[in-house]
Structure formats: structure tokens, C-alpha cells
Amino acid sequence: AQKVTQAQTEISVVEKEDVTLDCVYETRDTTYYLFWYKQPPSGELVFLIRRNSFDEQNEISGRYSWNFQKSTSSFNFTITASQVVDSAVYFCALTSGNTPLVFGKGTRLSVIA
Amino acid sequence: DGGITQSPKYLFRKEGQNVTLSCEQNLNHDAMYWYRQDPGQGLRLIYYSQIVNDFQKGDIAEGYSVSREKKESFPLTVTSAQKNPTAFYLCASSYPQGRGHTEAFFGQGTRLTVV
To answer: Is residue A97 within 8 angstroms of chain B, CB to CB?
Structure first.
């Protein structure tokens, strides 16, 4: 069975601080795909990134960066110089490709001005 | 614009009633999904469909039913058998597994409340 664990339920930071959201996954498949989604107060999930199991390169997109480490089954997400607009619930998700996405329970990030 | 449309945004149901949540997509995606979100529970899969006229139960299908008569539409019925239906419901679509593994696109959700 596949499982995604986001141990941090809620995080609060002051604006301009860096923050890392943790994601640990479990799967027996050798090929799988990892995702991060953002859920703002409006409710819709917004796709942020997809990572394939065979590509361990870290990725940076503006203030966002992702650290994928197969050795520790982790796919962590860092926001640099956080802003109030980053306040949202963030979900990590996993699929092996032949099943729907399995989500973690999410981490609620509050960025305080 | 391409996307997924869920309606209504808010829905109130009396106990014992069936209600149907609408989900329409114009992304030409083959696969569609229904997830339920409760506070602190993340997203849990109710049903999914990879092709027209076929669908599979997810982790929490009891008390729900779906149909997939058209590629664009995947309505979810919350029946009176669902004992705790108050939740936020999210519909999503994607290319089916084995065809590129794109991300799933989500609608804006329907918040269902039992009164």
C-alpha cells in the first residue's frame, strides 16, 4: 500500500522567514510520481510540482524549491522569504502510475506579517 | 477556458435526502475522481473513473454513487446511507495512468452541509 505522511500539522512563520514542509512517502513500486499541491482559502487545489522517481534532481522555481531524496523517502518543500500570500494548506501526494493520487493530511502554513 | 467546474459551491441537505454534486471538465481528460476532505483528514478517495461507463470504488465509497455516461461529466450522489456527509468535496481529472502521468486538475469544490 502507498502512504504519504506530513508530520507537520500546522506551521506559523513570520514574513520573510524560510520554511520547509516535510513529506515522507511509502511505496513498494520502483516507478512512482510525487506531487505538491497548494490549497488557498478558496478551496481549489493548485498543482505546484511533479517529480518522477527516476529523477532525483532538486528543483527551484522562484522562491519555491523541492528536495527529493529516495534514500530517505522524502520530498520536502521549502519556501524562501515567505510572504503572507503563501498562507495555505499544502498537500504532498503520490501515485505509482496505475492508481489515483494518495494524499497526505496536509500542512497548514500561516505566514504572519 | 479549459478547466473543471463543480456545482453548486454550497449545498445544504436535510437528513434522509439524496443529493447530487455536479462535476464537468472540458480538458479532454479520460480519468476523473471524487475526493472528500474533512478537517485534519486530508483528501480521501471516494470513486474514480478511467474511461466512460466504468468506475471503481475508492477508500470511502460507502453511501455514495457515481455515473460516467459522458467523458466530460462525473456526478456524485450522496445517498441517505452516508451517515456523516458534511464535508468538502473535490472533483479532479487527469490523463489515465499509463498515459503520461500528468498532474490532476481540481475543481473549486462543493461544501455540503447536513441540516
So the answer is: yes
Q: What distance separates the 2 farthest-apart alpha carbons in chain B?
A: 43
Out of A44, A95, A103, the one facing B97 most closely (by C-beta) is A95
Q: Which three cell numbers stand for residue A57?
A: 534532481
Interface test with A, best of B27, B35, B103, B108 (most A CBs within 10 A): B103
List, in order, residues 6 or more apart from A62 with CB less than 8 Å away: none
Band of residue B39 on the pLDDT scale cut at 50, 70, 90: confident
Residues B91 and B107 sit within 8 Å (Cβ to Cβ): yes
Q: Which three-class secondary structure state does DSSP give residue A84?
A: helix
Strand, helix or coil for residue B86: coil
A107/A93 Cα distance (integer angstroms)? 12
Statement: residue B66 has pLDDT above 70:
yes
Q: How far apart are CA A75 and CA B27, in angstroms?
A: 28
List, in order, residues 6 or more apart from A86 with CB less than 8 Å away: A79, A109, A111
- Which residues of B fall within a CB distance of 8 Å from A43? 88, 90, 108-109, 111
Whether the CB-CB separation of A94 and A32 falls below 8 Å is answered with yes
For B58, which residue in chain A has the nearest alpha carbon?
A100
Confidence of residue B100 (pLDDT cuts 50, 70, 90): low
* pLDDT tens figures, A54-81: 888 888 889 999 999 999 999 999 999 9
